[in-house]
């Protein structure tokens, strides 16, 4: 007997864990961005500590040579120092300057430095992504076997026609969605909304072997896991087991899919959410898990190859992102000439 409720519960746990992991990754990058600001605050704190120490030293010396030091109470104002032994401010400052000051950073700052993702090598980042996504994938696959979810509910068939049709439709859909995704991000940049691609740049390999690992291992794992979770499980299984409209589930899964890519910023969340909705519609219409996996893989692979390997920003040129910035620069130069 199929255990639909148990599978839904396990899927919910995996989804929550994935979103928490995404939030922690985003927070790590945000903490790394504030390191420079923290360094400036540390310097200011050291200066304040030095001033306080010097003041305390002068006060102590003044009290030590007061004629009435033995009879003064805690509320008495210290009297003038003994005229026979004047206090040398220069001597006091020199002694104070010889004292070591505590310039150690706070524990929170040290902890942030230890988990700074920008300090990790590309190989370590790729391994981290592959292992984390792979573990989630194994957890979902284990839940499928344990609860007895049928293959048809996941959009999976075992036939030659399913394989050929899925590869063909998935390839065409992947290329078209890649083009649409590029235009969406470029238009957002055109209107002043930046699309954060730091994570993609950090994952870009610098060797042929690294590219093979990325294209043949890491990206397939990502595509299979995310489509299995966001499309096959959250749409296919839940609609089959609980008689819920797949289109309603498509909206929910697309929102979750977008939130899982919060590292890309606001524009990235919007573009990814729209992409997730299209992939969900493609899954519902075709009923094929293979179609969305192939499409998802091609979108990611083309982005890496075009932007990171070739370095081509063709979509921004087509929508006029570069030309739009040129008049602003020219106008600024003209204003400077007029002021001169």
From TrEMBL:
Against PANTHER family, the record matches this protein to:
CAAX AMINO TERMINAL PROTEASE FAMILY PROTEIN, SLR1288 PROTEIN
Show the InterPro entries listed in the entry: CAAX_protease, Rce1/LyrA-like_dom
Q: Does the keyword Transmembrane apply?
A: yes
An example of a GO molecular function for this protein is:
endopeptidase activity
Composition bias, kind Basic and acidic residues: at what positions?
A: 97-115
Would you tell me the protein name for this molecule?
Abi/CAAX domain protein
Question: Which segments constitute the CAAX prenyl protease 2/Lysostaphin resistance protein A-like domain?
Answer: 210-302
* Origin superkingdom: Archaea
Q: An example of a Gene Ontology BP annotation on this entry?
A: CAAX-box protein maturation
Q: Which residues cross the membrane?
A: 130-154, 166-188, 208-225, 232-257, 269-299
Alphabetically sorted, this entry's keywords are: Membrane, Transmembrane, Transmembrane helix
Compositionally biased, Low complexity: which spans? 49-64
One Pfam short name: Rce1-like
Which ranges are annotated Polar residues under compositional bias? Answer: 65-77
Q: Where is this region: Disordered?
A: 31-116
